[in-house]
Amino acid sequence: MRAMSNHDETDVGAAVVQAIDPGEYREHFHREFRFAPYYSAGREWPDYEPAYRYGYDCYLHCRGRRFEEVEPALAAQWDRCRAASRLHWTEAREAVRDGWHHIERNLPHALDRPLR
């Protein structure tokens, strides 16, 4: 398997931004987070929003790699990126994964992959 070049990373980021508008992504999860199976009663949007943003941002930086490949690194960095979220990684993980998979499902090449 070949390593991705900086050109490939730029292509992945451009494809994500073109296919998934950051504002629409945020609004989607703002509407839906309370209905997610991982939602914890008593948690609010300011708790979950950083997890969804983290999923979006990390997908761009991880060049389209699978969530499972990068999860240990994401977990290690969560405390620095969580802003005012009260979620610990064990709580935020599924929201980050949900955001990550939302991007994968909505990219133009998504038809070439099994659904998550």
Fill in the keyword field for this structure.
116 residues; globular; mainly alpha
List the helices and strands and how they pair.
Blueprint: H1 6-19, H2 22-32, H3 45-61, H4 67-81, H5 89-106
Helix pairs in contact: 2-3, 3-4, 3-5, 4-5
Task: Outline the structure in words.
The protein is mainly alpha-helical and 116 residues long. It has one domain (6-112). Helix content is 65%, strand content 0%. The protein is built from 5 helices and no strands. The protein has helices at 6-19, 22-32, 45-61, 67-81, 89-106. Helix 3 crosses helix 5 (89-106) and helix 4 packs across helix 5. It is globular, with a radius of gyration of 14 Å. The protein starts with 5 loop residues before the first helix and ends in a 10-residue tail after the last helix. 23% of the residues are buried. The model is unreliable at 1-9 (pLDDT under 50).
Distance between the termini: 23 Å
- Alpha-carbon Rg, integer: 14 Å
Q: How many helices?
A: 5
Sheet of most strands: none
Count of separate structural domains: 1
Structural class: mainly alpha
Mean pLDDT: 84
The ordered string of helix (H) and strand (E) elements is HHHHH
Q: Pick out the low-confidence regions.
A: 1-9
What is the overall shape? globular
Number of strands: 0
**Into which percentage range does the β-strand content fall?**
under 5%
| Percentage of residues assigned to helices | 55-70%
